[in-house]
Design a protein that fits this description.
With 260 residues, the protein is an all-alpha fold. The chain folds into two domains: 9-61 and 163-256, no CATH class; 71-160, no CATH class. The protein has helices at residues 9-24, 27-51, 57-60, 71-90, 94-100, 123-134, 143-160, 164-182, 191-208, 215-227, 243-256, and strands at 183-184, 187-188.
Length: 260
């Protein structure tokens, strides 16, 4: 897929201002307004992507061209899927977990992994996890293997390096895009994208540990507030958080980062 990377930051900053207004006013009425603005922007965004032949979800990856992303961003993207998949597997949702956990092993997602072998990426660890899913084994039976897979990705991320603030900005932009795709008329219409947005937020939190103080503590606090907007994470709830609140909080995270 060769669609343009998203330009959500402007929307995010505007939504952050709207979010500030929520505090001073009646929350219900203003959340509805924020939701409406975010939906309009989302609809325009999706039309633009589909016009270029893109598709969302596990197949199309919602506007990202892996070939154009730096290695550390591709790794963060893959890690978001893995975090989501492992959380779902551990929550007893293997069918929901399976598509997310294909990213480290599937040929479909091979472009995400380009150059990672040189950093110590161990695909067999993830093949074991995928096989356990196929065999219907509960996560508790393969917990050591799940932990080993997580540790391998953390080690690869450490070796990949990159600008921490830039990685978090990329993840926040992606959270906004995926969450906006996931919600239609106040309901979760695309569970996979809803879960992805959560996974990218988790990776952002882990990345924030590499920031220097006092920025580190401030950014971590903002990301914790963001994560709280998935009330039954990673399981999609009947009444998800409105899009506008997620957009506003993702923007708050970006505003807390060091200047570019």
């Amino acid at each position: 897929m060769t669609t343009q990377l998203k330009k959500w930051t402007g929307l995010g900053l505007g939504a952050a201002i709207i979010g500030t207004g929520l505090i001073a006013c009646s929350e219900t009425g203003h959340e509805d307004t924020s939701q409406s603005h975010a939906n309009e922007a989302h609809q325009s965004h999706v039309v633009g992507e589909m016009g270029e032949g893109g598709e969302a979800g596990e197949g199309g990856e919602a506007g990202h061209s892996m070939d154009s992303l730096p290695r550390e961003h591709r790794l963060a993207f893959m890690m978001g899927h893995v975090k989501t998949g492992l959380a779902l597997y551990r929550a007893g949702e293997p069918e929901m977990a399976a598509p997310h956990l294909l990213h480290p092993v599937s040929e479909t997602h091979a472009s995400e992994r380009a150059g990672l072998d040189a950093l110590g990426f161990e695909a067999p660890l993830f093949e074991v996890v995928s096989k356990a899913l196929e065999e219907g084994r509960p996560a508790s039976e393969v917990e050591p293997q799940l932990v080993a897979a997580e540790k391998n990705l953390s080690m690869v991320a450490e070796r990949a390096g990159g600008d921490t603030a830039g990685i978090i900005r990329f993840l926040m932009d992606t959270v906004v895009e995926e969450y906006s795709i996931a919600i239609t008329d106040g309901k979760v219409s695309d569970p996979g994208e809803y879960q992805d947005a959560y996974g990218f937020s988790i990776v952002a939190k882990e990345s924030a540990d590499n920031l220097a103080e006092p920025t580190r503590s401030e950014v971590l606090a903002k990301i914790d507030e963001l994560l709280s907007l998935w009330p039954a994470a990673p399981i999609p709830p009947a009444s998800p958080t409105p899009i506008g609140r997620v957009v506003a909080q993702a923007s708050a995270v970006q505003l807390a980062l060091p200047a570019e």
